[in-house]
Design goal:
The chain is of the alpha/beta class. It has an eight-stranded mixed β-sheet with strand order 2-3-5-4-6-1-7-8. The chain is 24% helix and 22% strand. The chain contains five helices and eight strands; from the N terminus they run βαβββαβααββαβ. The chain has a single domain, classed as Aminopeptidase (3-Layer(aba) Sandwich), CATH 3.40.630. The structure holds zinc ion. The site of zinc ion (ZN) has 4 residues, from loops.
């Protein structure tokens, strides 16, 4: 089972990189999704020297949320001790190049999962990402976003880890929260588990998010 976590800010993923960083040998390759098309996106694959679980990081689903994209670029320089780290960035290349949330066809990529290989551009990108994740079977998917800082009474999820399930990853999430308590902005992350219509479970159930934001 894949457990997805949404990180609205770069700070947490940098902490996550710290968790996995080790002075081990580097084994880094790249491959492409939708290769040769205008929607082409690169996946960086970093392997540790020992066998282990896989972690899949997606950044830039919203092209104007640059914190996640910058964090992904930092992560591509990581070395890991064991397992495999996949870093897909930038998911919405056109959006990133033009500093806009949506795709060239003005679709919100994060509302189009699991996608359709024959559909509009966002559906094609979503299908490629979803298919690659299903093929790689990572233990955790981290979907990096950016948001305003969370404030009481405002509908903003910033500084939040949003986990579809804590089953089996509770210790890791706790470690992430601890790592982010003393970093960039002095604003500790909170942890959310999705509930209700807007933030629940399987993307197929409610409008096709890889995660929510
Ligand atoms: Zn976003």
């Amino acid at each position: 089972m894949i457990r997805r976590i949404l990180l609205p800010c770069a700070a947490a993923i940098l902490a996550a990189a710290g968790l996995w960083y080790a002075a081990a040998g580097r084994n880094r390759t790249t491959y492409f999704l939708l290769e040769g098309t205008s929607l082409e996106t690169e996946v960086c694959e970093i392997r540790g020297k020992d066998e282990g679980l896989a972690v899949y990081v997606v950044a830039g689903i919203h092209g104007d949320e640059t914190a996640g994209i910058l964090a992904a670029e930092r992560l591509k320089r990581s070395r890991i001790e064991r397992g495999t780290l996949y870093i897909l960035s930038t998911a919405n290349g056109y959006g990133a190049e033009n500093d806009q949330r949506k795709t060239e066809e003005e679709r919100d990529l994060n509302r189009n999962f699991p996608g359709d290989p024959e559909g509009w551009d966002a559906e094609r990108i979503a299908a490629a990402i979803y298919g690659d994740i299903e093929e790689k079977q990572p233990a955790v998917v981290l979907d990096l976003h950016e948001a305003r800082a969370a404030e009481v009474g405002k509908d903003a999820l910033g500084d939040s880890l949003i986990c579809q399930s804590l089953d089996g990853i509770g210790d890791m999430v706790l470690e992430l929260l601890m790592q982010t308590a003393f970093t960039l902005y002095g604003s500790p992350f909170g942890e959310h588990q999705p509930h209700g219509h807007r933030r629940t479970g399987d993307s197929r159930d409610h409008g096709g998010d890889l995660s929510r934001r």
